[in-house]
Amino acid sequence: xxxKLPTVHLEFISDYICPWCYIGKARLERVKxxxxxxxxxxxxVSPFLLYPSIPKGGxxxxxFSKKSKLGMGRSLRAEANxxxxxxxxxxxxxxxxxLEAHRLTWLVEPALKYELAKRIFHAYFEDGKNIGQVxxxxxxxxxxxxxxxxxxxxxSTAAEKDEVDLAIRNAKxxxxxxxxxxxxxxxxxxxxxxxxxxxxxxxRRAAKIQQREE
Length: 214
Known about the structure:
By secondary structure, the chain is of the alpha+beta class. It has one domain: Glutaredoxin. It has helices spanning 19-35, 61-67, 74-82, 99-107, 110-125, 134-143, 148-156, 161-173, 196-213, and strands at 7-14, 40-47, 59-60, 94-95, 181-184, 188-191.
């Protein structure tokens, strides 16, 4: 008889224009691989806006960089290298408002949210694509198999915008101030980018607590 693995719900709170979140997404892949034979990770992708004042059409990178520390420091570069990913700021021309990317992710089928999120992160940080553009977001969604009715709803209405706005407000009300952040089993919050070992330890601990309560 096949052993039933414990399931740990993991809420991944992030913003698509946050480089630390892209690193966190890649690192989560390593954690999943390490734990695949021990724990079933049920991953929920949740939105956050680091810069809610960015207008819908985005801002020119040169303008944005005067207000924020856009350059990639040594620590950021080192962490990206650990995950074999690149953050190509030279390819990025505009800093987008990521709300539409969050709204599309919220709309798609649960089984596809995580795969879509990976594509959006990669497109922005590796290829410098404008992830604020609806047409581009729809292309990415088609590639992961999102239903055409959902895409039509996304393009022609403001469906789920209020829900996304509320989720972002709730995260801030619950003291999420840095991303990425993890919430395990709808309860315990782990803020900021952590090492694989730290995330692995907390997920294992959540699984043990769950098993004791059963």
